[in-house]
């Protein structure tokens, strides 16, 4: 560019999200999985003697953020499952629950959202904000149902994770 050679990279971090040359999201999901493990280990150590109610509040605040999850469009089922398992394991560990207790049961008992519900809520929130925006670039996404990211957002709401999906093509 203007006589200066540009360095080519396979991936880079932009605003906390890992963007890869192939535009796949597995690396960013792995980044989030590791960050979730670190946050939960810290909570489990520092707040081991707190009541379950306090631990649940901490889990909601520190482990349900899933930063940039609404940007995940092209990923493997393996990456998705690894993150979901880490999310479930984090909650079990924080509350001292048995390793093989039912994930849906433990979340229902605690009255908090499971992994798939968190993803759906984040996607619903960004869809609402994109559709309501006056930004001309965002209008391109919201006005064209064939747009890849919009199609994925809709898919998240009508798809049961673990069953044959659009993601498996990538």
TrEMBL record:
<protein>
    <submittedName>
        <fullName>Uncharacterized protein</fullName>
    </submittedName>
</protein>
């Amino acid at each position: 560019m203007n006589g200066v050679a540009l360095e080519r990279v396979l991936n880079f971090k932009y605003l906390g999200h890992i963007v890869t040359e192939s535009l796949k999201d597995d690396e960013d999901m792995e980044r989030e999985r590791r960050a979730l493990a670190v946050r939960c280990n810290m909570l489990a150590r520092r707040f081991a003697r707190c009541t379950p109610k306090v631990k649940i509040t901490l889990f909601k605040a520190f482990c349900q953020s899933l930063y940039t999850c609404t940007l995940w469009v092209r990923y493997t089922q393996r990456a998705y499952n690894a993150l979901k398992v880490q999310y479930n394991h984090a909650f079990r560990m924080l509350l001292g629950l048995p390793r093989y207790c039912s994930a849906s049961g433990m979340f229902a008992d605690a009255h908090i959202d499971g992994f798939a519900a968190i993803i759906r809520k984040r996607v619903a929130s960004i869809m609402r904000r994109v559709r309501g925006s006056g930004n001309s670039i965002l209008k391109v996404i919201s006005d064209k149902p064939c747009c890849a990211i919009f199609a994925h957002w809709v898919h998240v709401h009508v798809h049961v994770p673990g069953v044959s999906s659009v993601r498996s093509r990538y």
